[in-house]
Amino acid sequence: MPTDPDLTLRPADGSDADLVAEVHLASRRAAPMPPGVHTDDDVRHWLAGRLTQDTVWLAERAGDPVGYARFTDTWLDDLYVVPTAARRGVGSALLDLVKAHRSAGFCLWVFEMNTPARAFYRRHGLVELERTDGSANEERAPDLRLAWPGHDPVAFFRGLIDEVDTDLGDLLNRRAALTRAVQDHKPSTNRDPAREREIVEALALRAPTLGEERLTRIVHAIITESLEASAG
Ligand SMILES: O=C(O)C(=O)C[C@]1(C(=O)O)C=C[C@@H](O)C=C1
């Protein structure tokens, strides 16, 4: 990518809120993304607040704002380039800056339908970690979590594994307590294969990468160990 002598990157502060918001609104309107669910004024107000919390860098060409990146310690929340400056190295310059500032790695969300952005991130070495059906985002549009694993990928991914295991530990604990609680209300403590099959089928919808065969073994182990734990 040739370096553009007219392109400069600088940290943005509260006085840049309007410029950042105009870049955001123009870029988003042109991108293959679901329509925003907030009014332009709400976006301006929200971004002005984010500028006081997050790190924001503005890209300018010959003094005109053409893009910006907004990031925290672990997430790249926004990377936007105005349509008139697309494919001229602005996004790459901003992403390189974020990589330099967050060398331990970071994650981001991208809409599944935003294929140009996904291709851009793939070209820049980001990897796809998980897909969602969109039920947890405001636009209700399927999205993907991507990661740039930084200078020590093992440490980066282990950090993410530890986060998931914190939730998994809580879930296993809650589930074991329920397995225990229901036993007192059953005529016999015999295993119920039809019910266990139902559980596997429901989980397979949420964890398609594992598939029913593996999930059958996993569910069997969880229930067996939970029953054993409850038997003391
Ligand atoms: O639903 C029941 O009947 C239970 O005993 C609970 C449970 C479970 O932990 O989900 C445990 C054992 C059965 O084989 C099926 C399901």
TrEMBL record:
Pfam families: Acetyltransf_7, CM_2. It comes from the Bacteria. One of its GO terms (molecular function) is acyltransferase activity, transferring groups other than amino-acyl groups. Keywords: Acyltransferase, Transferase. Residues 148-232 form the Chorismate mutase domain. InterPro entries: Acyl_CoA_acyltransferase, Bact_Acetyltransf, Chorismate_II_sf, CM_dom_sf, CM_II_prokaryot, GNAT_dom. Residues 7-149 form the N-acetyltransferase domain. GO terms for biological process: chorismate metabolic process. This is GNAT family N-acetyltransferase.
